[in-house]
Design goal:
A two-stranded antiparallel ribbon has the order 1-4. It has a two-stranded antiparallel ribbon with strand order 2-3. The chain has helices at about 5-35, 40-50, 50-65, 65-90, 100-120, 125-155, 170-200, 205-215, 220-230, 235-260, 265-290, 295-315, 320-355, and strands spanning about 95, 125, 265, 295. The chain has about 350 residues and is an all-alpha fold. α4 runs parallel beside α9 and α11 (about 265-290) runs parallel beside α13. The chain has a single domain (about 5-155, about 165-355), classed as NCX, central ion-binding region (A middle domain of Talin 1).
């Protein structure tokens, strides 16, 4: 490990921060210019843009024959997006959730995750599966655009007191520059982190399961936390959910289409990682339903669960004897978090009954 590696790590982090700032400014202003809600912008432009690293890593890996990386990257990133990124965003500032997310986008994310499990039962995601997944993301995007146009008419009719937004070309430049900085910054940060991990003797498998998955999610992390701090909380939540849906439909779909022999799904992914991805998606429902807010305490619970997951992945990959000792404690922590979320769901149901 040398000075250049550390410099690469720091430079990547700085570029990520400024890129996220530009992207959030451009996206929120674009929403005002087009008369579209920040939520829709977060679910589409921001979400699809911040998923560029996942697209690059997964599609290139599938095309080159390293297809297992493609599946692991998508599944690992989706888990990271909710537990780590949504958790940190909520810790930065409690997030108000719009009803559209609970009624439409979260169910779509859950169904998409379940479809991945069903497609993976035979041990691979075939080209036909890839085409179906990609067709799904196209249909989802078309629906969002139609809803945005319908919503835009309503916004324009009541927009007399709104300050005039900046020109469209300025918003476009901010978004493009922001996305470019996010991709470059995440690449430098991942390269630096991998070099440091190898220096400390971590295996390629552990690096792939942790650093690569987190690294390709760094644009979502930087953008969502920045949006949360700036008060653009619709963009913060929409970015996370939209990225997860895009990862499954577009990234996994395209990867399946270009992989010569389809995408093989590892047995451990089928038994552990994909079910965890589904459970994480399901956990969003009770959390979001509780007053339509993701509180700081919810964020802490998400973050704790992500630490538990990473500890399990690292120890399992190394076949450590310590895993058998600590797994009861890991399960206890997860059980406490699930109990907390279920209590929130019960509170919601009681309010519905009393209403």
């Amino acid at each position: 490990m040398d000075f250049i590696t550390i410099l690469l790590l720091i430079a990547g982090l700085v570029i990520l921060t400024f890129g996220a700032d530009f992207l959030v400014k451009g996206a929120s202003s674009l929403a005002g210019s087009l008369g579209i809600s920040p939520l829709v912008i977060g679910l589409t432009v921001v979400a699809f843009g911040t998923s560029a690293p996942e697209m690059s890593v997964s599609v290139s890996s599938a095309f080159k024959g390293s297809a297992e990386i493609a599946v692991g990257n998508v599944v690992g990133s989706n888990i990271c997006n909710v537990l780590l990124i949504l958790g940190l965003s909520a810790i930065a500032a409690s997030l108000v959730v719009q009803k559209q997310l609970v009624k439409f986008d979260i169910p779509i994310m859950i169904y998409a995750s379940l479809i991945v499990l069903l497609m993976s039962i035979d041990g691979q995601i075939s080209r036909i599966d890839g085409v179906l997944l990609f067709a799904g993301i196209v249909a989802y995007t078309v629906f969002l655009i139609r809803e945005a146009r319908r919503e835009g008419v309503a916004v324009v009719e009541g927009a007399d007191d709104i300050e005039p937004p900046q020109p469209l070309w300025k918003n476009a430049i901010l978004i493009i520059v922001g996305l470019a900085m996010l991709v470059l910054g995440s690449q430098w940060l991942v390269d630096g982190a991998v070099a440091i991990a190898k220096y400390f003797g971590l295996s390629e498998l552990v690096i792939g399961l942790t650093i690569v998955a987190v690294g390709t999610s760094l644009p979502e992390l930087a953008t969502s936390v920045m949006a949360s701090l700036k008060g653009e909380r619709d963009i913060a939540v929409g970015n996370i959910l939209g990225s997860n849906i895009f990862n499954i439909g577009a990234v996994l779909g395209l990867s399946g289409m270009v992989a010569p022999q389809g995408l093989p799904v590892a047995h451990t992914s089928l038994l552990v990682d994909i079910p965890v991805m589904i459970l994480v998606a399901l956990a969003c429902l009770p959390v979001f339903l509780a007053n339509y807010t993701v509180t700081r305490l919810d964020g802490v619970a998400f973050l704790v669960c992500y630490v538990v997951y990473v500890v399990y992945v690292v120890l399992a990959a190394q076949q450590s004897a310590l895993l058998a000792t600590i797994i009861p404690f890991l399960l206890l922590i997860v059980a406490l978090c699930i109990t907390w979320w279920m209590l929130e769901a019960v509170k919601y149901l009681r309010r519905q009954v009393s209403a």
